[in-house]
Each structure stands twice: as C-alpha cells, then as structure tokens.
C-alpha cells in the first residue's frame, strides 16, 4: 500500500463548517452521518469535527440535536396552494428517493402527518427579495422535514440539499438497507450567482443525447443551472439543420484524433433529439445555451458547404465562404485551432448562419444564444472583418429575441454587442495581466460576464503534470495548467475579484468547460468533470469566502467533498480520486440469511473507499492496504474477503464488497459488525444482520 492520503493542515482545530457565516451553531449532531465515521476509531481524520457534507455549502445552516428519520410510511406532501410546479418537484424528490429506499413515497396534497416531507411554495422570512429567485429554507425536526421556497426552482435546489443530508447510499439505483436519517437542521440558502454553468463540447467528440442527459442530472445535483452545449467546431457539426443536409452528412462524420471515420465515426442529433435534451435540462431547472462557434472554429461547416453548389439556399458561390488558411479547405482532425474562418463578406456565409441561428433559437426556449467568436487569427480576418462578422451575427441573434453570448473575444475592437450581451472570460490570467483586458472591454461595453478562466474552470486540463508523469496519463490537455489544475485550482479563486475592474456588479456567474479533444467517451468526460465541477458549483453558489490553498474555507470544502465520494460512487459516476481530498471510508451493512445448516456465505458490507488502494486488491488482507475483521455477532470473528475493481488512470476504483463465510450453531437473528480500514483513513465500523432459523 503506497497510497498516502494527505490530511490538510489545521483540521483538528476547525470549529465546524459554519465558522464565519451568519449562522450560529447550536449543537453538534450526536450521530454524524449514518455510517460515515466511527467515533471510536483512532486515525488521522477521526479528530475532525462532523460536517454536514453538503456541496455547495449553504449560505447558512444551523445544526440541532437529534435526527429526522425517513421511514416507509413517509409521504411527500405538497402544501395547499403550492401549485403544479411544486408538485413536479415533489415528484422529482420521490423519484430520487424511491430506488434506494424502496419506499412508496406517495406525492400527496393536503395536511402533513409526522414523518412526512413537506414542500411548500411560500415566502420564508429569512430570504431577502434578492434571494428569492432560487432561495429556500429547509428545516428538519425529529418528526418532520419541510422545504419552503418562493419558487419551484428554489424548492428544486432545496431537494438537492435534502438528498445530501441523507446517507450517501441514497444515490444507489438499487435498494439499500438504510436507515435513512438526516441531522436536525435549519438551512437558509440562496445562490451568489444566477448563472452556474457547465459546458460540454460534443463537436470534438460526439456524445449521444442520453449521455448528455446523464451529465445534466449529475450536475443538477450540485445546483448547476446552465448547460452550455458546444455543438460545432472544426472537427464536427452535430445538429441537423433544415435546408443544409450536408452540414451533417459531411460535417458530422469526423472527430478529433481518429482521422474521423473508422474508430470514432462522429454523429449528430436530430432536431427532435435536441428538443428532448432541452426539455430534459428544463426538467432539471437548467437553461440550455446552444453554441455554434463562428467565425472561427468552423472547418466542419466550411467542409460541408464549400462544394454545396446546387443548394438553392445558397445565393452566391459557396466557395466564397472560406476565409480559412486552406482554399480549398481540408479536414484537420488534430487538436489544432485557428486555421478556419467564415468570410463575413460572403452572402452564402449569412445564408448558412441565418438558417442555423433561426432554427436553433426556435428550438431553444432559454434566453441565450452563444455565437462563439473565439480565437480568430488576424491573419485570417482583420480586426474590422471580425467585428463586422460579430456585429452582423449579433443582429440576427437579437432579431430572434435572444441574448447574445460569446467568448470574451467578442468584446474586442469595433464590436457593438447589444445591451445585456454576455461575454465569457476564458483567459488563464488574473489582475491586470495580458489577456484580462478582454473582460474589462466587455464591462466597458456594458456586457455581463461569465467567469471561466481556463486555469480554474477548464475541466479538460490535466489534474497534475510533473517532469515525468501526467494525470490522467491518457487524456487531458495542460496549456492553461502547465503543472496541472487539481481541485485546489478549481476552488481557490474568486470570480468577483479575479480580474481588476470586473466585479460582482458585472459578473453573472461561473462555468466549468469540458472540451473534448482528448475525451472520446462519457466515462472520460466524467473523470475530468468530477470532482472539479463540485468546487466550481460551490464557488458559483456559496457566499464569497477567502478561498486559498491554506484557507479554512478550502479545508472545510475538502472535508465535505470527501463525503461526496461515496455519493458519486453509489450513483455510478466516474471521477478522479484526487490526492488533494481526504477521502473517507464509508460502508453500509447487508442482511444475510443462513441456509438450513446455519451457514451464511455472502456480502456483509459494501465499502466506498475512493482512491484506496492503488495496488492489486483481491483479498481482505492488511498487507494489501485494506484490513477487515468480521464479528459475526455470536462471539466469533474472522477476516473477510474484499472484491472490487482497482483504479485505472481514467477510472475511479469500484465500490468494494466485503464477504465472508460463517456457520451459526444456534438459530437466531445475529447483529454482526465489520470493521474496515485502509491507509491512514479513519477506520469504519458497520453493522449487518444475519438470520439463522
Ligand atoms: C481553448 S478558450 C478553446 C477550445 C479548446 C480548449 C482546449 C476557447 C474559447 N477555446 O477551442 O477546445 O481551449 O482546452
């Protein structure tokens, strides 16, 4: 066992997760998180105070004593007058809780009974008017759980918090034993920013609607409310556009790195599929922002339409659209950028772009259309040609009633973005350093800013790079992060003060951007997105805090992030078990039945141990890093077997199963225990039952 967990300095003295916030801690829960820690256990993490492992951290939370127990008879009650949208959120909550609990959890209207979960559209006094759009108040007592919010979106945010108050196994797709308790809390919560986004590039590598919907549901659990879909780039165009069949018959057939065809044939979505994803995002209270990047990053469009000479939609000569480096154009399936450009002077350029924008805006109910606008070298388009392009395209977008969004390049010289347009700042630069002027130019033009500085938010950047290793070895880039960007880089920055002259009066939010040149499948995407997106979700949602590598806020976040490991594992989400995170051991016990001879043989517990161990693991053997002792409840002990899949350089290790064999001499119901240890994490003890008749 050579994996060393890094315990952040200063944890022992940490005064609880509320330090510095407006709330008052009136008690520490007698039982922390179900089985997440063993108070008796000695170990480096045992001295840390219990935390509510909620991410993003609520604006304020007060922990009382005792716990709420969700039991089999519980109902989800929609308070009178709350309306159908609240009913839908209640249905969402039921759907989240049913698989793991196995309970019926009927959604009902009317009066609550003890043990119910109540959702109510109301006006919690603790929320100021500015906090109401997504604010909520969540209160649990020994006999009730209530979420009250002024809007259905606020209720939805509240149910995400409620899920995280339950043990991590609540995110399992199959029934788990429980018990399903939460601490007694009063949480008043609302977001810092209205725009909390994640972007996925399905142009460099195609992803199916179903895969994208998985990411939507995973991101929604962390209160991400914008899904930015990068639909087109040099290597692929991914949406069917009426009147331009070649955009997909030619434009969608390639991907980065595979020379397009054999290994990775590309793909595209029909308009119906796109609409279904938009609707799915909306059901997760997420706004979908479509992007067709232009005038650069569009070799796929040029390759498709350059020879489209018999298309009646193209009034001039389609060869006139190509202002790129190559004429005639040619496919380039490398990761190169900056070689393609559409010509602003070609009427055919505008026939194509108008069709795309008209159709895409009609399919998209959200307020934004992202026209891209990044990385067009002046060798291809002069500054004035570029500005002419952006201005003309912005006019088409606003003519369709949409807010113009683009990379902050669109705030450059000569552009006149309509009032309220949004610039996404991507440069890995802070203060007044070169590159930051794009954000200030945006502010000077009255634009709003989404902060996506590449060295904090680009989810395609490698986690770590040294002279001899890079993590992950087989995917990721590192242009913005020469030595890697791990959880610390994602967490330790402040969107409202990163760039001089750009403050919270300009910034509307934060976005994590998953570029896919190196990530050909969703498992790889998840490995890069998680857990960093959770850090960005907190930066975007939670109140401003001093976030530095040595700050209390960061140490507190790491503890809560560690608690998310079991949730992600139980939900089957791949992630990088970052060595910056003090991952915990979290176990749940099973129920076993003996055969007619009193023999049991099977699983006694399931263990989440992200990042443990790095060596081969087949047996429950302390020399391999995991130790386990099973007490069978009849005074005897034995050593269990551990099975599971090891980590690879792009997958987290699996959940582990602990099993054993035992013969009971007498019939009865036995309460056994298994104690698990790994590395320097706090050991965990979990109970199981075995019945012998
Ligand atoms: C930069 S910054 C890009 C993308 C790449 C990404 C790779 C910006 C708006 N564009 O085209 O995919 O870097 O990290």
Would you kindly provide a written description of the structure presented here, covering whatever features stand out?
- This protein is an alpha/beta fold.
- 23% of the residues lie in helices and 22% in strands.
- The protein contains 14 helices and 27 strands.
- Helix 1 (83-101) runs parallel beside helix 2 and helix 3 (209-220) runs parallel beside helix 5.
- Residues 1-50 and 614-618 have low confidence and may be disordered.
- It binds ligand TNX.
- Residues 337, 374-375, 407, 426, 458, 460, 477, 515, 517 line the site of ligand TNX.
β-sheet strand percentage: 15-25%
pLDDT < 50 stretches = 1-50, 614-618
Indicate the overall shape: globular
Rg over CA atoms: 27 Å
Q: How far is the first residue's CA from the last residue's CA?
A: 41 Å
Helical proportion? 10-25%
Question: What topology emerges from the helices and strands here?
Answer:
Layout: E1 60-70, E2 76-78, H1 83-101, E3 107-109, E4 117-121, E5 136-140, E6 145-149, H2 152-165, E7 180-189, E8 195-201, H3 209-220, E9 226-233, E10 236-237, H4 246-249, H5 271-283, E11 287-294, H6 299-305, H7 347-363, E12 368-372, H8 383-399, E13 403-407, E14 422-425, H9 437-444, E15 448-451, H10 454-457, E16 464-465, E17 470-471, H11 487-491, E18 507-514, H12 522-529, H13 532-541, H14 552-571, E19 586-589, E20 591-593, E21 599-608, E22 626-631, E23 637-639, E24 641-643, E25 656-663, E26 668-678, E27 684-692
Parallel strand pairs: 2-3, 2-4, 4-6, 8-9, 8-18, 9-11, 11-12, 12-13, 13-14, 14-15, 15-18, 20-27
Antiparallel strand pairs: 1-7, 5-6, 5-7, 9-10, 16-17, 19-21, 21-25, 22-23, 22-26, 24-25, 26-27
Helix pairs in contact: 1-2, 3-5
This protein binds ligand TNX.
Ligand TNX binds at residues 337, 374-375, 407, 426, 458, 460, 477, 515, 517.
